[in-house]
Known about the structure:
The complex is a heterodimer of chains A (396) and B (269). With 396 residues, chain A is an alpha+beta fold. Chain A has three domains: 18-133, Orthogonal Bundle (Butyryl-Coa Dehydrogenase, subunit A, domain 1); 139-236, Butyryl-CoA Dehydrogenase, subunit A, domain 2, CATH 2.40.110; 245-390, Butyryl-CoA Dehydrogenase, subunit A, domain 3 (Up-down Bundle). Chain A has helices at 24-51, 57-67, 84-95, 99-119, 122-133, 245-279, 291-319, 325-349, 361-373, 378-390, and strands at residues 139-142, 158-162, 165-176, 183-190, 193-200, 206-210, 222-233, 281-282, 285-286. In chain A, the strands form three sheets. In chain A, strands 2-3-7-6 form a four-stranded antiparallel sheet, with helices on one face. A three-stranded mixed sheet of chain A has the order 1-4-5. Chain A has a two-stranded antiparallel sheet with strand order 8-9. Chain A is globular. The termini of chain A are far apart. By secondary structure, chain B is an alpha/beta fold. Chain B has one domain: Rossmann fold, CATH 3.40.50. Chain B has helices at residues 47-63, 77-87, 105-116, 138-146, 199-205, 255-265; strands at 11-16, 19-21, 29-30, 35-36, 43-45, 65-72, 91-95, 123-127, 150-160, 163-169, 174-180, 183-187, 210-213. In chain B, strands 11-10-9-12-8-1-6-7-13 form a nine-stranded mixed sheet, sandwiched between helices. A two-stranded antiparallel ribbon of chain B has the order 2-5. At the A-B interface, helix 1 of A face helix 2 and helix 5 of B. Chain A: Residues 243-389 form the Acyl-CoA dehydrogenase/oxidase C-terminal domain. Chain A: Keywords: FAD, Flavoprotein, Oxidoreductase, Transit peptide. Chain A: Belongs to the acyl-CoA dehydrogenase family.
Amino acid sequence: MGDQHKPAAPDARDFLAVDTSLDAEEGSIRDTVRDFATRELLPHVADWFEAGTIPDPRGLAKAFGDLGVFGMHLEGYGCAGTSAVAYGLACRELEAVDSGLRSFVSVQGSLAMTAIHRYGSEEQKREWLPRMAAGEAIGCFGLTEPDSGSDPGSMRTRARRDGSDWILDGTKMWITNGSVADVAVVWATTEEGIRGFLVPAGTPGFSANVIHRKLSLRASITSELVLDGVRLPESARLPGAAGLGAPLSCLNEARYGIVWGVAGAARACYEAALEYAGTRVQFGRPIAAFQLTQRKIADMVVDVNSAALTALQIGRLKDAGACHHTQVSYGKFANVAAAQRVAGAARSIHGANGITLEYPVLRHLLNLETVATYEGTEEVHALSLGQAVTGIPAFR
Amino acid sequence: MGVQGGRPPAMNIVVLVKQVPDTATERKLNPADNTLDRASSDGVINELDEYAIEEALLLKEKHGGEVTILSAGPDQATDSIRKALSMGADKAIHLNDEALHGSDSLQTAYALAQALRTTEFDVVVLGSESTDARTGVVGAALAEYLGLPQLTLANKVDIDGGTIRIQRQTDDGYDVVEAQLPAVVSVVEKINEPRYPSFKLIMAAKKKPVTKLDAAGAEIDPAKVGLANATTETVDFAAAPPRAAGTVVKDEGTGGVQIADFLASKKFV
Lengths: 396, 269
């Protein structure tokens, strides 16, 4: 064999050629989302972040719906029925633009639609899923409360029977898309245990207040939900959901999207830093020529590729029906931390420029503070992993 | 096919799709035979062909019927065919034969005309030029080979019964050009905004029929195609010269006029 058979040098942007195992559909979906995100989202995201909102959430939902990204790996009811890996790739390419945009998709598809798809009645599925898949109806998911985060079993929102109806009282907190949602999936304790309810917007006693003054996930709408004597018929209850396991299984789906998403955020920060280090000249040379910068870049390329491989492997396990929830915990634990390291290093390589919205790095770094907390904090996932490998639960 | 309520009969629309090297990557020629080195960069759908696909899909949405993709190219052109199907086309014909390698614009038009004879169509839509060779003559040559009217550089297409009417973009505005179907239409990028493939259609694309056609299947005369029989020849190629220094306009009261004159001389205004 001669030189012509020497493998080509790796692509700096995909050093381990992670995407070479994608099938044709997965590759098409990645390309489509990347193209859409680059042309339709990236030019606006810094403005949205600065404004602290998504100015046209209905328009964005429709565009996502036209693409088919909402509930894309669910079957039937207007959903595309892709592989879990394809869904992960979509999350990766969206979060390469901004964690807030991936959150929009996670809440709609992995939380609200999954809850209805998995635990809803046939009537509930037919009423909501096709419109939610098309982006014509927006959903949100109310589990967390002001005083109930990592310990959702301590929730105070209650549902009590009144004849054949239910009356709900309580407050939900940190609810993405709460104030723009057409339907809220709300979890409440009952005498029989935790149950889920579909609360349509406009139901008397139900209101949503936008949470302002966030320093993270600013290109996203976050709300508080207030339930004050909300009367619902029995047909609003999710008949398949019994106990805390139901909402936690939805969170596991959203977490799966995060495992992929943060690999995209990390990649975006790394690419920005690589570009900046190659063009920023100090002491007569590009700063990429300095050893301290190269060490940062080497650490970043390892973190970016490890995160991408971790996501892909967990996705392959999921498509094979062999993914345990602690493996998703592994992915969230490992990949969010990797993305935070990359975003921090990228911010430092950008110097003063790195603190502005002209560059994506601090925006990602700030977003990742939220991502590290929601759908299970780093501490909770560390404990989940610890229990999985030692067999000893350290949290109870 | 019956006409109901004034609605024109469903149409068979064929879109010509060419796979070209991604303009975002470095493109190379093969020094051995001066043809395009297709292995050196990723293949994508020629940009203007995406507008042609979109226009065909809009025509189908309006008039009913079927959109068929016709692409001549090597094995890797299947990627572009799949993307076209993911945008919503119904089926495809892939003309693929080593004998076609190195064919010039005229030969390509001949080969495409032969392939078109294997299917029924009312209208053929294509991009007005490709980003690689940029000859912009395939549509016209194809119409000649087929003996059909050609309506080129369309920025608007209307079909009413058996009549097709387009706006042909010109430097000063547009001409209205009309013909009877079947006809060949080439489009410019002002005509529409191509849609993104939807995931549902991406998932469905692999189930859509793609007819593989070789030169014999299309009754293409081997003596009329390929590099050896080409009517034109790429004699030589060279790297683009480095950019020359620009012209500096110093504003002494006439700067605006000088810039306007410069832009006019380059036909930008």
